[in-house]
Amino acid sequence: MNGGKTAIKFNNEFWQMIVELYQSDTPIKHLSSEYGVFETTIDKQIKKPIPFR
Asked: 13-33 pLDDT, tens per residue?
């Protein structure tokens, strides 16, 4: 078991919104507390290459 916590998968639109907020000068610490995502997870998503569309 995972200690009673349920893993949540976020879709690409969610991560795109997070990256856009970060790029508009919203601190990672604020995004983490606002959306309930670890700062390290947000940092990894921000550094991910953007897929071709």
From this structure: 999 999 999 999 999 999 999
DSSP at 34: H
Q: Rounded distance, CA 17 to CA 4, Å?
A: 28
| 50-52-53 Cα angle (round to 5) | 115
**Domains in the chain: boundaries:** 12-47
Q: In this structure, which amino acid lies at residue 20?
A: E
Q: Please give the single-letter amino acid code of residue 21.
A: L
* C-alpha closest to that of 46 among 18, 14, 7: 18
- Structure-token pair, residue 8: 């949540």
